[in-house]
């Protein structure tokens, strides 16, 4: 039997979002602004304000500052490479760099899911059992939960990365995407990817369903507790306390489930790219805006910071 000739892939070509030169310029400016807002909003406004404002130094805002850190991190894993793709004719990424990008993105996106479920539980304890809040959500327990989410994110991402690293790529090296995401990479492999697809569906599905279930159960009790509040002002305050988080959860899980939980045959590559833009770049930008616009304490802290800056000039 004659041996088959093939070339082992050592680098990939990322097609990016578009090959239209004029549109690339527009998208470069757009995503540069989005990335700048993401960094300023998450690192500057949320983390800095929470650390320097005594009134915001609570466990609720501790989780929010952790969420802001994660948003800035996983956006930074994707955005720089995407911005470069708008400036060059052909965007390439080595196999090892692709592995690293996939690893870190998987870590941060998993941590975000864990943090959102923790914040839902935090709201549940604060609204449903306020007298037990100090005991149930101590600083030590909260730090332990965040540390656990970090470990869980690393284990989940390492599992997928090791599984992905064992695949052989000897066909096309052209990825119809703007970063090294799992679904488009599996389509390029010349190895049997059935186990990878099963692992992606089960592992990501179990984590997504478990964290989402915590959110649903927490908010079921929260809604019941809010409806029992007699004063309209009290109900409104409790509702607005949770509205920002509920908005973030809805956007996060709806976009993420589109790419990772349903079979890839049910959506096109272009649809996958658009949805990926939302959970990699748009959501990290929106989170600080959502929390600051709907939170009176954060808005008050922003105004004080602006006033201090104004008087110091």
How would you describe what is shown here?
Its main location: membrane. It is found in: Membrane. The chain crosses the membrane at residues 25-49, 61-79, 99-121, 142-162, 205-227, 239-262, 274-293. With 313 residues, the protein is mostly helical. It has a single domain (12-312), classed as Up-down Bundle (Rhopdopsin 7-helix transmembrane proteins), CATH 1.20.1070. It contains ten helices and three strands; from the N terminus they run βααβαααβααααα. Strands 2-1-3 form a three-stranded mixed sheet. Helix 1 (21-52) runs antiparallel to helix 2 (59-85) and helix 2 runs antiparallel to helix 9. It is globular, with a radius of gyration of 22 Å. The termini are far apart.
Please provide the ordered H/E string of secondary-structure elements.
Answer: EHHEHHHEHHHHH
Extended strand count: 3
- Spans of at least 5 consecutive residues whose pLDDT stays below 50 are 1-5, 309-313
Strand order across the largest sheet:
2-1-3
Membrane topology: Multi-pass membrane protein
InterPro entries: GPCR_Rhodpsn, GPCR_Rhodpsn_7TM, Olfact_rcpt
Pfam family, one: 7tm_4
Protein name: Olfactory receptor 1052
């Amino acid at each position: 039997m004659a041996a088959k000739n093939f070339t082992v892939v050592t680098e990939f070509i990322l097609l990016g979002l578009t090959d239209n030169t004029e549109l690339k310029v527009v998208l470069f400016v757009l995503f540069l602004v989005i990335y700048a807002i993401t960094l300023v909003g998450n690192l500057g406004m949320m983390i800095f304000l929470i650390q320097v404002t005594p009134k915001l130094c609570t466990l609720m805002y501790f989780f929010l500052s952790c969420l802001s850190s994660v948003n800035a991190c996983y956006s930074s894993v994707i955005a720089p490479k995407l911005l470069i793709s708008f400036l060059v004719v052909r965007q390439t990424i080595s196999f090892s760099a692709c592995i690293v990008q996939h690893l870190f993105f998987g870590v941060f996106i998993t941590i975000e899911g864990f943090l959102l479920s923790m914040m839902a539980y935090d709201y549940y304890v604060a609204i449903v059992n306020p007298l037990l809040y100090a005991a149930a959500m101590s600083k030590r327990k909260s730090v332990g939960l965040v540390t656990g989410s970090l470990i869980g994110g690393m284990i989940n991402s390492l599992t997928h990365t090791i599984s992905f690293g064992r695949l052989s790529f000897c066909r096309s090296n052209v990825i119809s995407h703007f970063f090294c995401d799992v679904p488009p990479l599996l389509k390029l492999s010349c190895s049997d990817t059935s186990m990878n697809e099963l692992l992606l569906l089960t592992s990501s599905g179990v984590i997504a369903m478990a964290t989402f279930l915590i959110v649903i159960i927490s908010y079921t009790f929260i809604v019941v507790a809010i409806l029992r509040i007699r004063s309209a002002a009290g109900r409104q305050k409790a509702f607005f306390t949770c509205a920002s988080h509920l908005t973030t959860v809805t956007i996060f899980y709806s976009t993420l489930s589109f790419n990772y939980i349903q079979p890839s045959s049910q959506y096109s590559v272009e649809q996958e790219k658009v949805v990926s833009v939302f959970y990699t770049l748009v959501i990290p930008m929106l989170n600080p805006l959502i929390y600051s616009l709907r939170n009176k304490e954060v808005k008050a802290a922003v105004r004080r910071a602006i006033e201090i800056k104004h008087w110091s000039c």
